[in-house]
Amino acid sequence: MSTIGAAIIGCGAIAPLHAKAIQSMEGVRLVAVADTDPARAAQAAGDYGCEAAADYRELLGRADIGIVHLCTPHHLHAPMAEEFLQAGHHVLTEKPMTLDVPSARRIQEVAAASQGQLGIVFQNRYNNPSIRIKETIDSGILGRLICMKGIVTWYRSEDYYTESGWRGKWATEGGGVLINQTIHTLDLLQWFGGEIASVTGNVTTDVLNEVIEVEDTAHACIIFKNNVRGLFYGTNAYFVNSPVEMELVFEQGTLLLRRDCLYLWKDGHETLLSEPVSTAVEGKSYWGTSHQRLILDFYKHVREGRKFWIDAGEGIKALEVIAGIYSSAVKPSN
C-alpha cells in the first residue's frame, strides 16, 4: 500500500479532529501543518510530529502531499481550495465550501478540471440517526415523507466574536448562525427532502446586534418538489448548546431525534432506534462524533479512485438554502 501524505492548513480548534483521523489510518502520514501564526503552527507540528509552515503556499508544489485539509476561516476556503486543486492536490474542506453560491460554482468548475477531488465536511450525514433516517426515506418503509422540522438552539458569547478577527462579519464569515452553526442541520433537511421548490425565511440579530454584523437567529420554510414541507429554526441566542432536534412525519409513523437518540413513534408506541456513540467526544460536543468517519471515507474514495459523494455539488445545495433565506429576508445591520 502506497503512503498518502497529508497536510492541514489552519491549526485552530477543529484541526485536532482532522489530525487524529489522519494519524489513525494505515498508509497515511501527516507531512505538514500551516498557520499564519508561526507559534501555533510550530506547536501543532510538535504535537503531531510533522513539519510546520507559516505560509500555505510553501506546500502547493509538494509531491509528497496528496490530500490537503482546509481548517481555516470561511473566507479562505475558496482561494485555498482553488490553488491546491489547480496544483493537483485532493482537498477536504470544512464547511462552508465558500461564502456564497457564485463562488461555490467557480470552485466546482475548478474541481471538475483538476486531477484532485474536492470533499466537503458535512460530518452529520455520517451520524447513525442520519443514516437511519435516510434509509427509512429511501426504503419507503413508513410510506411517504410528509413534513419535517429542524431546531437548533445554541449559544455563542460576545467573546466568541470579539476574540476572532473574522467571525461576525459578512466579508469573512459570510453570515452568522445560518452559515456557521446551523448549516449542518440545513444540509440534513435538504438531503432528506430532495430537490427544493422554494425557500422563504427571515433573519434577525436578537442579542448581539451591538457586536456582530450578521444574524444570530433565523427561521425558514422549505418547500420541496415532492411537496414535503420543512420548517427550520436556529439561534445562537440561547444560554446553552442544546442537542439538535429533528422530527420527520411519514404516512405510517414519525421519526424523532432527541438528545442524539432516534425514536420511532408508531401506533401509539415509541421505540428507540439509535443511541449516541458511547466513545469520548473529541473537541466540542456539538461537533458530533462523525468527523473521523467522514475523513476515513474520503481517503478510502481517493485511494480507490472513486468520486467522493459529498462534493462541490452537494456543498452548493446547503449554500442555496441559506441564500434563499437571506434573499427573502432583510439583512441585519448595526
From TrEMBL:
GO terms of molecular function: nucleotide binding
Domain Gfo/Idh/MocA-like oxidoreductase N-terminal, residue spans: 5-118
Pfam families: GFO_IDH_MocA, GFO_IDH_MocA_C3
SUPFAM superfamilies named in the record: Glyceraldehyde-3-phosphate dehydrogenase-like, C-terminal domain (SSF55347), NAD(P)-binding Rossmann-fold domains (SSF51735)
Domain of life where this protein originates: Bacteria
Residues annotated as domain GFO/IDH/MocA-like oxidoreductase: 132-255
Name listed for the protein in its UniProt record: Oxidoreductase
